[in-house]
Design a protein that fits this description.
Distance between the termini: 30 Å
Shape: flat
Order of helices and strands: HHHHHH
Radius of gyration: 21 Å
Helix content: over 70%
Number of strands: 0
Amino acid sequence: MKRKVALKDILLLQLAVGIYSINTVVGGFVGNSLNENGALSVKTIGLLFLEVFVLGVYAVLWQQLIGRFQLSIAYANKAMTLLWSLMWSIILFHEDVTAFKVIGVLMVMAGTVILNTDPTASEAAPADNKKEDER
């Protein structure tokens, strides 16, 4: 029997995905630091440690959450990294947002919502109508 997933768990899953997306931001800073300072600079090494730390926090949180979801739903929610990456690119890097980017992210969000929706909730109505017809 499938148990209902609490909103709190879905929000925690999105937090984990958001933390995972921070890894890409830190990775970008590592790349810039490598080009500017070299591999053995204090800044580059510090950013590499930060990247490993972020991935460690994500891994622990992900392992705690993965048992609360069907595996297919949990991994589908990782696609929301696109939304988080778009937000980071706007906030941190002041990149332009195109209509195609917004449409793409909205499509991913719609797919994630559909996967997180309980399909058995809509199946209850026809069964109730059938019982009324039998009376």
